[in-house]
Amino acid sequence: MFLRDDNVPLIRPYLMAVQHLNIEAVNDAYNDLLIEEEDFKTLRHSIDSFDNFNNVSLASRLEKHELLEFRRLAAHLYKKNTKWEESITLSKQDKLFKDAIITAAVSASSEVAEDLLTYFVDIGNKECFAAMLYACFDLLRSDVVMELSWQHGLNDFYMPYRIQNQRSLVDKLTKLEKEVKEHAKKVTVKEEAEAEVPIINPGIGGKLLLTQGPSGGAPPIYMNGTGMMPPVGHIETVRWRTILTLVSLPS
Fold this sequence. Notes:
Keywords: Coiled coil. By secondary structure, the chain is an all-alpha fold. The protein has helices at residues 12-18, 24-37, 40-49, 55-62, 68-80, 84-93, 97-107, 110-122, 126-135, 142-152, 155-196, 232-248.
């Protein structure tokens, strides 16, 4: 009802009181009110704090606004929604090059960063070219930067980047070399430890289990009830007696 009758300003205190609930209808109404009042600072705080609204729709609406700060908010919304090209294009149109550089750095995309770097070279903005080399250092490929610098006479702006890039390369190689040496050392220690372990268990007391005799305890008990093997003749006599006894038993 308030929206239909254009009485939203009357419920401004209510909208501010309940916006922490992050309700889409409340956010839309409050953002519309701020746009109507041209309060871009409060609008930026609102869209950063409460995101339950159609971000792209609001950005499309703001990019056509007559005030620069609202168009800047449109680029900010595009950036928040990972629409890098739309955000950078809008920033370039308004010559907000700092915002464009920040967006390229946040994108974490080499393609986006290199496209913007090429744009600065094409328009002859050497300062922004140097700023890009600093802000997007990890995203820019060194061969691309070197080629652009050589073709357009930007060696003075390129040299600090080249020095830093060379230093980073040396640091990475040093770190890699250290890791390789540590790994090789661990492998060597492991191989030496494995080489010292015998293939066959030496057994108890250093005697091989295959040749080790009885290590103590009671001797085996044989048929004569002693711990000694009976003579061979005695065994034969016992065997014949057993056979005769079995034969003489009644069937």
